[in-house]
Amino acid sequence: MTAGSKKQEKPKVAFFDFASCEGCQLTVVDSLQTHLDLLDAVEIVNFREAATLNGWDFDIAFVEGSITRPHDEERLRRIREQAKVLVALGACADTGCVNALKNLLPPEEVRRYVYGEHADWYETYGARPLSAVVKVDAVIPGCPIDREEFVEVVKALLVGKRPPIPDYPVCVECKLKGNVCIFHVGGICMGPVARAGCGAICPTYGDGCEGCRGIIPHPNENAMKEVLDEAGLSVDDMMHYFRMFNAYREVGVGQWE
Amino acid sequence: MTTLNVNVHYVTRVEGHGNIVVDIKHGEVKECRFEVVEAPRFFEAFVRGRPYHDINHIVSRICGICSVGHSTASTRATEKALNVELSEQAWLLRKLNFHGEILDSHVLHTYYLVAPDFFGVPSVIPLVETHREVVERALRLKKLAGDLCAMISGRHTHPCALVVGGFTHTPTERELRAMRERLVAARADMDATVDLFASLPWPQFERETEYVSLRKDDEYAFIDGVIVSSDGFTYPIEDYRKVTNEYLVPFSTAKWTKHNRESYMVGALARFNNNYDQLHPKAKEAAARFGMKPIVTNPFLNTAAQVVEMVHSLEDSIRIIDELLSRGVREEKPAPVKVQAGEGVGACEVPRGVLFHHYVYDEKGICVEANCIIPTNQNLANLNADIRALVPQILDRPQEEVRLLLEMLVRAYDPCISCSTHFLRVEFV
After folding, report:
1. How far is A141 from chain B (nearest CA, A)?
2. pLDDT by residue (tens digit) across A83-97?
3. pTM
4. Do B13 and A118 touch (CB under 8 A)?
5. Which residue, among A52, A207, A79, A125, has the nearest Cα to B126 in the 3D structure?
6. Candidates B41, B74, B111, B422, partner chain A, best to mutate (most A CBs within 10 A)
7. CATH H-level superfamily of B65-378
8. Is residue A125 part of a domain?
9. Of A126, A167, B9, B238, whose CB is crowded by the most CB atoms within 10 A?
10. Does the ipTM surpass 0.85?
């Protein structure tokens, strides 16, 4: 059964979050500026950041954040059991985002650097995306999510379709916009292999793509190497940049288990 | 004798996860506190080893609501460490971008998070039916603030173009003129905002405390300046640790701070109390509508101080755009950076209070030490002191009313709990 198939009754929607900045839920709130009619199509039953509602009867769960503590898993599994459709909302939930940068480092040292002698007061383990713990039905990539893409995904889910997430690189969007290539102005950019859908917003504003939406399914690595060679950059330079948002993809939880 | 048990597991309409625990048996206070249970994220540990130009893009991810603030404090720290001078135009754009965030965050807090308590509804959503004009005004103001940020740095949450040395993008004069028109037109919405919030029955509660903020000679301080306290102290921002004196408490994943007393307060009310003289005249008029003049000691009025600041930021944004247009806007690249070893502290008055970022770089421009102190952490001890002072005054009221008042008190501080757990850090030497 799809989320939208209940007749007459609006699908019940809930928002939850784990380790994150809550910027994606904020983007959801901001989507109402131009799509207030979304509220006619769904019933929000749980959204701690924006509402005093605590409903656990929902069809669609949007979950922001990475899983960073063993006891988070239990709460996520409860959400999974209840939800007919579970959507990973944003990069923290989808790829681990910058939370997974700690996975590259030795756990003991990281915990002591932050909590000193009281390191053992606070529970933590390697940061991971939701899909490392439960089945995820759909993702909305990006750090933060794109407002319009969120609206499109909701519309698709309401009619029981798989949300259309681009699997071509950011370069395509840059070319369509006629942007000057960041490599041509001495910058570094993940555009050739990073997933599009953001309208190439960072290059449009003069800064290289950081790959916050993850890597496309079949990246053209040879083309990437060519671009790097032309720009006089090494694969190491690129990997360093790549890790910013994609450390989990590279090392998983590292030494944190 | 009174017995009261309030346990709010996850206070709603705040950023992040926090609990209120009040347990009073036969008039004796067993527990009475606000706990932070948000997952820690270890930013300070993992920015080490990254080059200077990555840092502000990473740390903006601490907070989706005040990411311009984190980016600004971060770039200021790096710019000081690496001796980077901003152009006058870049300074004006930094300030304008900052006003955009102050407006955005204050609209979110006042309209979306606080107002529902006064309308007796769980969120802003039911107001779409009952008070549509209020909701539409909030959405218009929030869109204006977001568009102001986007015009300068690409987007409000996690700005793209705000980098060490200035910006990688320059708004056009045409965009600035169009934005100016919208800001001027928004004065009507701002007047209506003051009317609405000045008419609300603010809870009565007074507890005097120490108020800490930045201060500048020539303007109401948001970026840079010195640290001042209402107890008469002044420090250069490099001495921030003399003010914050962080310590850990077992029931909170966020650190606490204290200075001259058991606790101090930061945020809109602290800025209002310390820098009232520098507010725009229209903002002072708005304050008069709330009957506010320094020193205001009712923490619930932190939200009112935010309304006053919204008026200030709107008016000062118009002034800054006028200055940019009269100077003539040039397409500018960020100021060049000479990579070198260095140490710097950046400080900003983000929506929730004073924020410090402190980095040490090696000779290759790689970050080797990082420390950040978040406003919400600085407010936790004060919020807990307020809870302990308020509870005995309202013990005779129904439990649901006590619960609501305590939640409203927590919300008045506009806590940003994700922020508060992202930078828990011991001293480095």
Report:
1. 15
2. 999 999 999 999 999
3. 0.95
4. no
5. A52
6. B41
7. Cytochrome-c3 Hydrogenase, chain B (1.10.645.10)
8. yes
9. A126
10. yes
